[in-house]
Design brief:
The protein is an alpha/beta fold and 361 residues long. It has ten helices and 15 strands.
Length: 361
């Protein structure tokens, strides 16, 4: 899999541009000072893969201040097949449109045509602090691997939204508690499948995790990623019934896969209690490498890799391991200094980004 071209219009601070990516190059680097738009280029590719941003939930944030809409278009090669992906966001009416080869698609049918693995220094702190980020890692991987998982996740989120709305109506005396039964059944049916697939993919991740962690950390440690569900699938129905009064009082559903978490065990000890920032770096890289491997195994081709300012966070040893492992992937990378790119082997296509304008060196 590789991106052949990317066309950008009205997107954040980036000037209208069309980029063509050479087939003989594997690394595409965007160089510039912070705040000039480098990360926006990675975000554009991420949006065309996932249909969502890694920075905002608000679609209008994607549109340039002086524009009424933005559009992103990429031509992606999968073997001998070329696919055109397009994302359009309008301000009035507020709407996001997704297209594959010119045909409008739902998000569930849009995702999967471009697979990506994204790495940012922010991942290191966020994966330690936020259960939501840890769930997001699993959900993004599974959504790219399994269309059924993506469909079930979207349906689960909709059912959860409806149940939470009903909880508030019950608290206000506008609905009866018996009306929860329908949404409870939806959450249990969809949620049980989601939890089962998370368990399965973690088995695949753990089959790779310790080997990669030893390689990245330089230590003979055993890493295990452990699933920590808020409730077991077989007890989900009972938990919803048991917690109804509390859910009504709070106005939100307290049990289910939307509350699940991951625990990272190093030699049997929870990393949250002792890990240094260097050990979190090693963990995040391990998870990204496992993600690349699983996408290659399950989909039959390597994903594209998006690396945001990794030189500021990774030491020379970890950079060397990273760049050695990703030799077979098409990689898009941002950096503040062109000289940092000298450690990367292979053909490179390098651009300067200044005040949103992109020019090839």
């Amino acid at each position: 899999m590789r991106v052949k071209s990317l066309t950008i219009s009205g997107f954040r601070n980036l000037k209208k541009t069309a980029l063509e990516y050479r087939a003989d190059a594997s690394v595409f680097a965007f160089v510039g000072a912070n705040g000039h738009g480098k990360t926006n280029l990675l975000e554009a590719l991420f949006l065309l893969a996932i249909s969502k941003s890694f920075r905002t939930r608000e679609n209008e944030d994607l549109i340039a201040f002086d524009a009424d809409h933005c559009s992103l278009k990429a031509v992606v090669e999968q073997g001998s097949e070329a696919i055109t992906l397009e994302l359009i966001v309008t301000r009035e009416p507020s709407k996001k449109t997704l297209k594959v080869n010119g045909v409008q698609k739902k998000a569930a049918d849009f995702m999967g045509h471009l697979n990506t693995v994204f790495f940012s220094p922010d991942d290191i702190g966020m994966i330690h602090l936020s259960p939501g980020i840890r769930r997001r890692y699993l959900d993004m991987l599974l959504s790219q691997l399994d269309r059924e998982y993506l469909n079930d996740s979207l349906k689960y989120q909709q059912a959860l939204k409806q149940r939470n709305s009903l909880l508030k109506q019950i608290a206000d005396g506008q609905a009866g508690e018996e009306e929860l039964s329908f949404w409870d059944e939806q959450l249990v049916t969809l949620g049980s499948g989601i939890m089962g697939k998370r368990v399965t993919v973690l088995e695949d991740i753990n089959a790779k995790a310790s080997g990669y962690y030893r390689q990245v950390s330089g230590e003979q440690d055993e890493l295990i990623v452990q699933y920590s569900p808020s409730v077991k699938a077989e007890g989900f129905q009972d938990a919803l019934l048991k917690n109804r009064s509390k859910d009504i009082a709070i106005g939100s559903t307290q049990k289910g896969p939307h509350r699940d978490d991951l625990i990272f065990l190093c030699n049997g000890h929870d990393m949250a209690a002792f890990a240094s920032r260097g050990e979190w770096r090693s963990l995040v890289l391990t998870l990204k490498f496992a993600e690349i491997d699983l996408l290659k195994e399950k989909k039959g081709f390597y994903p594209i890799l998006l690396l945001d300012d990794v030189f500021s966070e990774l030491d020379d040893a970890r950079q060397k391991i990273l760049f050695n492992i990703i030799k077979n992937t098409q990689t898009f990378i941002t950096t503040t200094h062109k000289e940092f790119l000298e450690v990367i082997e292979g053909e490179k296509q390098v651009y300067e980004v200044r005040d949103g304008k992109i020019e090839q060196f």
